């Protein structure tokens, strides 16, 4: 699994990890991947359109794949990532493809957006790269910035054998923290767990649930 596909952790103490990871990337190398999301069609986007979502936030945007997918499908989009490098890469990539998007550096724990600023939000592979306590805070922040009745998409990675083969420590909350000499050193990952997700999304109506081509468990809930 490529490191840039895992970027999404937003705990404050891991900011340096994501900044360092994104400092090794550049838009020239990532543009071919980004372009695949231009005019992307998916069940998730169809549901957002059906529910008349107009203004959307791409949380922990990485290099802007879902920012582009949303913008190219007619949504008004703002995006953020904890890494300033990622935010700059996203802005440059979108600019090259003809999109002028408001992208900034911010944590999902404190986005800086106004209450109910958005109709919906995408948060792909974000909350499972945080401690459970921070994941709950991050989800609460998404609920704050999305209006009542709006939609929130969250997804969670499966842990594969390659992940488990790396040196790591098991945390009390069920997360693992990578250690050792790998590029993932310091990264947090919570293995997908139905009980954990049910607790995280407690009280929300689940409108959509699926496993996508990346083996991510995707949920869309009504705020």
UniProtKB/TrEMBL annotation:
Q: Which InterPro entries match?
A: Methyltransf_11, SAM-dependent_MTases_sf
CDD domains the record matches = AdoMet_MTases (cd02440)
Residue ranges constituting the Methyltransferase type domain according to the UniProt record = 58-153
A GO molecular function term, named singly, is: S-adenosylmethionine-dependent methyltransferase activity
Q: Which chain positions lie within coiled-coil regions?
A: none
Report the protein name in the record.
Answer: Methyltransferase type 11 domain-containing protein
**Which species does this protein come from?**
Butyrivibrio fibrisolvens
Taxonomic lineage is: Bacteria, Bacillati, Bacillota, Clostridia, Lachnospirales
């Amino acid at each position: 699994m490529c490191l840039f596909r895992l970027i999404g952790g937003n705990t404050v103490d891991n900011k340096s990890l994501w900044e360092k990871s994104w400092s090794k990337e550049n838009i020239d190398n990532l543009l071919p991947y980004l372009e695949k999301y231009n005019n992307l069609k998916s069940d998730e986007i169809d549901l957002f359109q059906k529910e008349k979502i107009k203004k959307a936030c791409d949380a922990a945007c990485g290099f802007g794949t879902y920012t582009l997918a949303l913008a190219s499908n007619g949504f008004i989009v703002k995006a953020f990532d904890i890494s300033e490098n990622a935010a700059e890469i996203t802005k440059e990539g979108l600019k090259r493809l003809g999109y002028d998007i408001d992208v900034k550096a911010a944590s999902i724990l404190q986005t800086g957006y106004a209450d109910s600023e958005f109709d919906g939000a995408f948060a792909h592979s974000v909350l499972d790269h945080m401690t459970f306590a921070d994941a709950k805070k991050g989800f609460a922040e998404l609920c704050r910035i999305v209006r009542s009745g709006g939609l929130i998409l969250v997804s969670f990675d499966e842990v594969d054998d390659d992940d488990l083969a790396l040196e790591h420590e098991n945390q009390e909350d069920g997360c693992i923290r990578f250690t050792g000499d790998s590029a993932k050193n310091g990264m947090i990952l919570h293995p997908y767990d139905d009980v954990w997700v049910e607790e995280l999304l407690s009280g929300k109506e689940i409108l959509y649930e699926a496993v996508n081509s990346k083996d991510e468990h995707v949920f869309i809930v009504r705020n």
